[in-house]
């Protein structure tokens, strides 16, 4: 496993805790992908206990609660401030349990859950095979896992620009569509369907992109990152290299989104 796939969980928790107040204002991509994820639900089968892994500020949790079959929602997030925002939004809902926990160590009993959803959260897990084994453990036989995650083409422009400056890992690495399928198969899932989509929002400047990434908590949390403070010269070098991607007066940023459904 490369250093790009070795993640510091304390840094992830810290980043998303710090971003809780600004997250909703800039998380348009997360909401777009979440709506797409909801469109893949087999509504006649949505019933019983539903787990939302990486609930963040509660967008997907609230939508799932609106489905009449959901009897009990489990909202789980690693960052307590995110979970507290979700709890505040859903204060009137009496059928929600809030779990501040790690997706790589689910505090849920065997075969206790009817559906597991996760929107752009599992990319922050290092050992996906362990995660999928644990999700299968808590799912009832034949029940469904539906999730979205980022793929390896995500932020490829930013990665390329930083590569012109130094050899450190400045952008998180992400598993491919094929790797996700293999991990799920090894965990015992079947009827696995995967789809990759490329989203390319544009920005006025590289600084605007960097500000958005900060506000949604998407910091570089890899073990191979530069531990020293980025100098002004390094940042200017990266920005200059990124300008080669400018098109029509705008800066693009690629986000590969992988959508996956599977049955336990």
SSE layout and pairing:
Blueprint (H helix, E strand, L loop, with lengths): L8 H10 L4 H4 L1 H11 L9 E6 L5 H7 L4 E8 L2 H10 L6 E5 L12 E7 L8 H11 E12 L5 H8 L13 H10 L3 E10 L2 E2 L2 H10 L16 H11 L8 E2 L2 E9 L1
Parallel strand pairs: 1-2, 1-4, 2-3, 4-5
Antiparallel strand pairs: 5-9, 6-9, 7-8
Radius of gyration: 19 Å
From the 3D structure, determine the CATH topology. Answer: Rossmann fold
CATH hierarchy class name: Alpha Beta
CATH superfamily label? Vaccinia Virus protein VP39
Structural class: alpha/beta
Label the overall shape.
Answer: globular
The tally of helices reads: 10
Measured by DSSP, the beta-strand proportion falls in 15-25%
Number of domains: 1
Largest sheet, strands/sense/barrel: 7 strands, mixed
Number of strands: 9
- End-to-end Cα distance, whole Å, is 27 Å
**How much helicity do the residues have?**
25-40%
Mean pLDDT: 88
Low-pLDDT windows of residues = none
């Amino acid at each position: 496993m490369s250093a790009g796939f070795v993640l510091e969980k304390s840094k992830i928790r810290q980043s998303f805790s710090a971003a809780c107040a600004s997250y909703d204002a800039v998380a348009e991509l997360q909401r777009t992908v979440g709506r797409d994820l909801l469109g893949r639900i087999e509504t006649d089968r949505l019933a019983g206990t539903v787990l939302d892994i990486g609930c963040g500020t509660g967008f997907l949790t609230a939508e799932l609660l609106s489905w009449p079959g959901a009897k009990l929602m489990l909202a789980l997030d690693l960052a307590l401030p995110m979970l507290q925002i979700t709890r505040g939004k859903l204060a009137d809902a009496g059928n929600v349990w809030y779990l501040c926990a790690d997706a790589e160590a689910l505090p849920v009993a065997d075969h206790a859950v009817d559906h597991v959803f996760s929107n752009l959260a599992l990319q922050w897990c290092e050992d996906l095979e362990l995660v999928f084994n644990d999700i299968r453990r808590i799912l009832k036989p034949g029940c469904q896992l539906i999730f979205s995650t980022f793929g390896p083409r995500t932020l490829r422009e930013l990665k390329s620009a930083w590569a012109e400056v130094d050899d450190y890992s400045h952008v998180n690495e992400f598993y491919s569509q094929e790797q996700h399928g293999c991990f799920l198969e090894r965990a015992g899932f079947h009827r696995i369907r995967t789809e990759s989509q490329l989203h390319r929002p544009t920005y006025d400047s590289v600084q605007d992109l960097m500000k958005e990434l900060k506000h949604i908590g998407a910091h570089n949390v890899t073990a191979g990152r530069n531990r020293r403070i980025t100098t002004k010269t390094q940042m200017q070098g990266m920005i200059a290299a990124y300008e080669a991607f400018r098109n029509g007066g705008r800066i693009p940023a690629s986000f590969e989104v992988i959508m996956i459904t599977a049955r336990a």
